[in-house]
Each structure stands twice: as C-alpha cells, then as structure tokens.
C-alpha cells in the first residue's frame, strides 16, 4: 500500500535539478562571504522582496529568532498572534534566548486589525517593557494556511511604526500567500522591516531559510547568526537548490492549493469532517474530527497508509505539497471513508 504523507510540506524531497545544482555549485567560505552561490541566492532574495540585503539561515526557526534578537533588546516586548508559530512552536526561544516577552493578540483566521493592535498595545510607561516588535505570520500555519493581504499588513505596520515598533513577517510560506493572492512579495515586504521565508517547505529544498531587510539590519542579523552557530562555511550546497526553488518552484504551489481545496471539500462531503472552508486558502487543511480524539483518528488513518498531524485534541492538519498528486487526493478520501 502506498503511503500518502500529508503531515507537512517539509517532507518534500529535492528535485533532480536541485541535486544537480548541488553537485555543480561553486563553493567558498560563506562566513567570509566567499561562497559565490550563497551570494547569488541572497542577491536574488533581496531583489525579489525589494529589500537591500538578505541572509541565508539554517531554518525558519533560526530566521525568526535572529529577527527577534536583531530587532529587540533583552527585556523588550513583542506583539504577535496568540497561535503564531514564533510563539507556539519555537521552544520559547524569543524569551529563552532573545530575552523578549510576548504579548498576544487573538486573531481571526490568523490575522488581526490595526484596531486590535491598538487595543493590545500598552503604550510607553515606566512599569511596562519597551514594545519594540510586531511579528505577523503569512501564511498563518495554525489558522490553516490563511493569508494576510498586503492592505492588512500595511494597516498594522503603519500603527506599529507610528508607535516605535519594527515589523517582522514570519513568511515561512509567504510564496503560498503570493500565489493565492496573486501578489508580488514586494507588496508585503515594502510595509515591513524584515521577512523570513523557508526554502525547505513547499519549495522542496532539503534545508534552509532566507531573511531579507535593509543592509544595516542584515549586517547585525549576520552577527547574531554567527553568535548562534549559524555561520555555515560552504553553504552553497544549501543555496544552490534555493536558487532553483526561487526560479522554478513558486508558480507550481497553485497545484498544492487546488489539491488542498479538493481534499477539504471531499473530506467534508464524504468523510463528514468539519472544516472551515474560509481557512482553506493555500496548501493546509485543518479538520475537526470530533467527537474522536485526533490521536485516534490519526492512528486509524495511519493503518490505511495516510499520514497527517495532530493540531489539537480534535483537530487534524493535512498539508498538500509536490509529493501529492491529484490521484493521491482521491485515494486519501477513499481510504478515510472506509468504516
Ligand atoms: C509559520 C512557520 N514559521 C516558522 C516555521 C519554522 O520553520 P523550520 O521548521 O524551518 O524551523 C514553520 C515550520 O513549520 C512555520 O510553519
């Protein structure tokens, strides 16, 4: 029985073109900025987001932590959504490593308004920490891959900047948002101070994320990356598939989005799972499997060769990606509807 793995788009394997690019990459010591392949990737990324500079980092988690460390000082506060990855899934690094306290906004499908931000922001007062950063997540993972539109980003970023905060986008899957909204990455990036995005998710690279910002920010981020042990020497072997990804893997994300929609509709119709279809905007489907515990649902699915992940006591997440075909979607539904 073929195993159909919908746990995450991080399970995607590199393409042959990526593997060839690794074999042929021109390499050097990136800590001394002498890896030509890393330099090309960083220039491409900066250009794509309309920013001055970029930095290759080992992972999305590293990119977020480096952004927090670079924008904030120990004892500062940052504002983010209550279920943001940076808060929910990154081992508390913002506090444990960067010394930053989070202040949370409960969003609606992952986004919030400038009015909500205003209501959350405490202002400058002797007793309060300095609020130095707003982080938003596009697409929002726990909300089901939902998108922030450029106009929404503009509104919250304007409030943040007017009140002395920097703005970071955790754009692990920002190209999914770009494809879904038919938006250029610059439309998001122009409103904010930094964006990090993952090469290793839907874009299918084996490793790596990139952060972009102005030159002064990236210079300081490079130093923080070094402090955290993220100076990676001949990192061109990571950058080479990243260049392939940025040139040829973005447009195909549309297929993953179509598959996610088809999967969500069929899971609702044929397997009686409850799904908020308004959240199915990109490549993630979050289903409520009540009254079953998600772990029971997942164990049963695994017995039928379907892998997904738990997203709460009764919530299950399915992620479509390059390794999932149209036929796989039909097969998933067939297998899950069996008693
Ligand atoms: C929104 C978001 N941000 C950051 C990350 C972290 O990326 P990584 O797994 O490369 O550390 C993820 C990973 O799933 C994510 O979904």
Outline of this structure?
The chain has 339 residues and is of the alpha/beta class.
Structure description:
This protein is an alpha/beta fold and 339 residues long. The chain contains 14 helices and 12 strands. It has a 7-stranded mixed sheet, with helices on both faces. A 3-stranded antiparallel sheet has the order 9-12-11, covered by helices on one side. The structure holds pyridoxal-5'-phosphate. Pyridoxal-5'-phosphate (PLP) binds at residues 59-61, 64, 85, 137, 141, 170, 172, 198, 200, 209.
How do the strands line up in the largest sheet?
Answer: 2-8-7-6-5-3-4
Order of helices and strands: EHHEHEHHEHEHEHHEEHHHEHEEEH
Which descriptor suits the 3D outline?
globular
Biggest beta sheet attributes: 7 strands, mixed
Distance between the termini: 18 Å
Residue windows where pLDDT falls under 50 for at least 5 positions: none
What is the tally of beta strands? 12
Q: How many individual helices?
A: 14
Ions, cofactors and other ligands present here are: pyridoxal-5'-phosphate
């Amino acid at each position: 029985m073929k195993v159909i793995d919908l746990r995450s788009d991080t399970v995607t394997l590199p393409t042959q073109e990526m593997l060839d690019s690794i074999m042929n990459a021109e390499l050097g010591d990136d800590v001394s900025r002498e890896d030509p392949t890393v330099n090309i990737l960083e220039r491409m990324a900066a250009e794509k987001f309309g920013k001055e500079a970029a930095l290759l980092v080992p992972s999305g988690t590293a990119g977020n932590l480096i952004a927090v460390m670079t924008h904030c000082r120990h004892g500062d506060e940052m504002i983010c959504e209550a279920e943001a990855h940076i808060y929910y899934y990154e081992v508390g690094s913002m506090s444990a490593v960067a010394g930053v306290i989070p202040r949370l906004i409960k969003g609606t499908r992952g986004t919030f308004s400038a009015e909500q931000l205003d209501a959350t922001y405490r202002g400058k007062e002797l007793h309060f920490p300095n609020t130095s950063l707003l982080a938003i997540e596009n697409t929002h993972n726990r909300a089901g891959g939902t998108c922030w539109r450029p106009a929404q980003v503009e509104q919250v970023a304007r409030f943040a900047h007017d009140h002395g905060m920097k703005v970071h986008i955790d754009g692990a899957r920002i190209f999914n948002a770009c494809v879904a909204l038919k938006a250029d990455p610059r439309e998001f990036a122009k409103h904010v101070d930094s964006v990090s995005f993952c090469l290793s998710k839907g874009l299918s690279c084996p490793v790596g994320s990139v952060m972009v910002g102005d030159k002064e920010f990236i210079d300081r981020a490079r130093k923080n990356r070094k402090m955290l042990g993220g100076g990676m020497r001949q990192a061109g072997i990571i950058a080479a598939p990243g260049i392939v990804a940025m040139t040829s893997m973005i447009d195909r994300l549309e297929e993953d989005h179509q598959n996610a929609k088809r999967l969500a509709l069929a899971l609702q119709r044929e397997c009686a799972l409850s799904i908020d279809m308004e959240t199915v905007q990109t490549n993630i489907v979050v289903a409520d499997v009540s009254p079953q515990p998600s772990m029971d649902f997942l164990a049963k699915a695994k017995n039928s060769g379907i892998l997904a992940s738990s997203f709460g006591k009764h919530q299950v997440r399915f992620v479509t990606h390059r390794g999932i075909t149209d036929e796989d979607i039909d097969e998933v539904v067939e297998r899950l509807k069996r008693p």
